[in-house]
Amino acid sequence: MAALSLSYSLVPKPSHNQTQTAISLSRPNLSFLSHSLSHLSITARKQPVVPKATDTEAAFSVTDAEIKSPVLVSEPAEPKREEVFAVVMVGGRQYIVFPGRYIYTQRLKGASVNDKVTLNKVLLVGTKTSAYIGKPIVPNATVEAVVEEQTLDKKVIVFKYKKKKNYRRNIGHRQPITRIRITSITGYQDSPVTTLD
Amino acid sequence: MNKKEVFKLAKGFRGRAKNCIRIARERVEKALQYSYRDRRNKKRDMRSLWIQRINAGTRQHGLNYGNFMHGLMKENIQLNRKVLSEISMHEPYSFKALVDISHNAFPGNKAASAPKKEGLAILV
């Protein structure tokens, strides 16, 4: 994983020519990051794979401004993680993704392990100070990911039964899935932005 | 299914249904039928839950669910209800931005206001 040491600026971004009001942000926004949302699966096209969230990184996820101070006594070894999230569409389903976490998506054919994958259908990007809302997608935003694993899902027993008609069918099913780990969310800075209160 | 598999699936069942094969087999078959049916019902239930959550979130900002979704459809924002409900719970500022966009999609609207507080809520 690349060491993400981007520091956040709490200065609101200047509003673009869309009708957005620039209001200075003073309160932290990303309470998301403390939750493990690695299983919000959204089906997407055959895009590159997105990495999954690691549990260690989820435990570290930043929730307020104090962690970004230069003296990190508690976690000296953890790389600084960007506080940004994105809503991406993969395999026909939408997922909320964070850099450093993994998600399970439908099987991406043609992607082998350790392939880099870029997801283009980004519907929303949120940072601590601003939200980039796409109509329908955020232009030029991409989510980079790495394929970790191409496996089958847990077995589901499909049991069909009709009473008094002697009809019983017992079928097992394992759906092919792919685990991808998100590395970074980029390219959204130029898009029209809603600066948050 | 042979007996071993039946008993494996019958773990946690009540009374003789987890120990005696004749009863366990019936109960396990019923359980598998329910799971088949409920895999389909779960999708309906989850969507209903998401809609309730989005409704609660938008009403805090003075909009209701129907008008909110209408505004989003008008603006061609294609976030689904699952993601919207998660955002309404964990990202309140982003959600407020979405509510504002939806409200401003109809030029006839006045500014959306938070609902009036009644009773003990005034103290909050």
From TrEMBL, chain A:
UniProt GO cellular component terms: cytoplasm; ribonucleoprotein complex; ribosome
Gene Ontology MF annotations: rRNA binding
Pfam family membership, one: Ribosomal_L21p
InterPro entries: bL21-like, bL21-like_sf, Ribosomal_bL21, Ribosomal_bL21_CS
Keywords for the protein's UniProt record, in alphabetical order: Ribonucleoprotein, Ribosomal protein, RNA-binding, rRNA-binding
UniProt cross-references to HAMAP family, sorted A to Z: Ribosomal_bL21 (MF_01363)
Similarity comment: family membership: Belongs to the bacterial ribosomal protein bL21 family.
Protein name per its UniProtKB record: 60S ribosomal protein L21
Organism: Salvia divinorum (Maria pastora)
Automatic annotation (TrEMBL), chain B:
Gene3D superfamilies recorded: 6.10.160.10, Ribosomal protein L20 (1.10.1900.20)
Keyword Endoplasmic reticulum: no
Classification via SUPFAM superfamilies: Ribosomal protein L20 (SSF74731)
One GO CC annotation: ribosome
Pfam families to which the protein is assigned, alphabetical: Ribosomal_L20
Coiled-coil stretches: none
Keywords: Ribonucleoprotein, Ribosomal protein, RNA-binding, rRNA-binding
Main location: plastid
Subcellular location as annotated: Plastid
Single Gene Ontology MF annotation: rRNA binding
NCBIfam families: rplT_bact
Family: Belongs to the bacterial ribosomal protein bL20 family.
Function: Binds directly to 23S ribosomal RNA and is necessary for the in vitro assembly process of the 50S ribosomal subunit. It is not involved in the protein synthesizing functions of that subunit.
UniProt name for this protein: 50S ribosomal protein L20
Taxonomic placement: Eukaryota, Viridiplantae, Streptophyta, Embryophyta, Tracheophyta
